[in-house]
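Treating backbone geometry as a discrete language has practical consequences that deserve illustration. Part of our work consisted of pairing the sequence of a single chain with a tokenised description of its backbone. What the numbers capture is local backbone geometry rather than side-chain detail. For completeness, the protein is quoted in full, as a sequence line and a line of structure tokens:
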Amino acid sequence: MRKKFTKFIKMILLIILLILGYFIVRDNFLTKKTIAVVHNHQNINHIKIALDDNRIDTNDVDTSRMDTEMCKRKVERADGVIFAGGNDFDPDIYGGDRSLVEEYSREDDEKSLAILDYAIGLEKPILGICRGMQLINIYYGGSLYDDLEKQFSKEIIHRGSDKTLTYHEININEGSRLSKIVGSDRIEVNSYHHEGIKDLAEGLSVSATSDDGLIEAIENPYYSYMLGVQWHPELSYENDKYSKKILKDFVKHSNAGKN
């Protein structure tokens, strides 16, 4: 009797292991996640490379050549959404100064806001990069500095004089999602922007600031996963461990097959 019981237990354990093995193989080798990358006619190759390194398919959502409904369909099929860097915003959207902004498209801005609203309605994990972080702030009612050097500070160079990439350190707030992701309270990031968050929207929280006090990262603590960073982790992905941690954490939280 005891031998039969032992054999039965072993069989049950084997079945459990087979079931667990099936789900591990399915989730890691058979089912590939898809991330929608929303942008306005920008080069997103570095994002594609980073996602490919994590076995993620990229769903290219170019607001400059797709109508809003097509963009929404692509977002609906995705497991997570990245709002990438790009042009300035129409300052009329947030009450800015038109004389200080550079290239922008009101049509693309309105599409991006509509797509973000749609993604939020579907509870998709969201990562905002550079313009994408600013988009999140505008969506919730915040505003921007139109030109940091003229309206904020020259203490830190946030974009090279000939529109080149530069670098500086940021301070990460303890207890924030970003702090838990990178495991550090101070890191170096790349920088390529002349706009920045001025008034933080209600409901959002600051995750990081630069030494001049500019907001460098935000998150929505009331949403399942919404993180915005002012720098470009995709550009430093291959040689910076913190950039890898940010993108890998976003991928991990992109819930394949649940939306």
